[in-house]
Amino acid sequence: MSEVLSVSGLVKRFAGVEAIAGIDFAVGRGECFGLLGPNGAGKSTTLKAVLGLVEPDAGRIRLLGLDIPAQARLARARVGVVPQNDALDPDFSVAENLLVFGRYFGLSRATLAGRLDGLLDFAGLAHKRDAKIHELSGGMRRRLTLARALVNDPEVLFLDEPTTGLDPQARHLIWERLRRLLGQGKTIVLTTHFMEEAERLCSRLAIIDRGRRIAMDSPAALIASQIEPHVVEATGDGAADWASAGAPALATRVELVGETAFAYCASLEAAAATGAAAAGHGSLRVLQRPANLEDVFLKLTGRDLRD
User: 97 and 192 share a domain?
Assistant: First the structure.
């Protein structure tokens, strides 16, 4: 798989503080690569550096065979960007937002007219063609922002938390659209706080924290290598007592978060026995499940709140 993006030894400091502290990763053509991390981990700064919007203090970035930031303008003409905030023009209709944005890339009116219907259909907004932005729901605005990022037929699409604030229906629709793009051979670089989103879409991902890459692999490989395969959640007033008394006997480790105890088990038999013990301990609500990417993320980055 040929590389469309390579980042090596990337460093960026703000007021002497390292927002990015030597990150390395590469993205192959046609894959969806995820950047995961808590607030302030350096995800958005990394994307800005890759796009040439901030100049790194050290390291090398190559995007589509071009050196960044020296050739960032040429690279940006071949990529699409979905920022955290939609930044749509409220004075224009849905169609006009697409047409005007396309003019920034030097596309002709004829070219844009030929692409417009396809972009509106892709976003599910053909029926809102002439609507103003204030008439759209949050999900519609996000789909329009995604369509706008495709107006120049980009080779690489950068998505910065594309489904934050959306309801499940809108989120699933955007996931379906992104899978369609991957099927067409597009490359996607994604930052997200939704572990389910990363697990569904990403072929590989990197977890970063405090500006450093702390893990990188496919979601399935990270789950297999970084976390026990089975989890028992016990929630209720007696969770702390159960965590200190009954859970550790069969669980590899136990974490108490508020009124929920998380017992991580190495085998299905141990998880079943742990779950049964929890069910017999007062009025605890018990859930037994396979480990997931969120478990890995919390183990590696901690459960403390980041602001």
Answer: yes
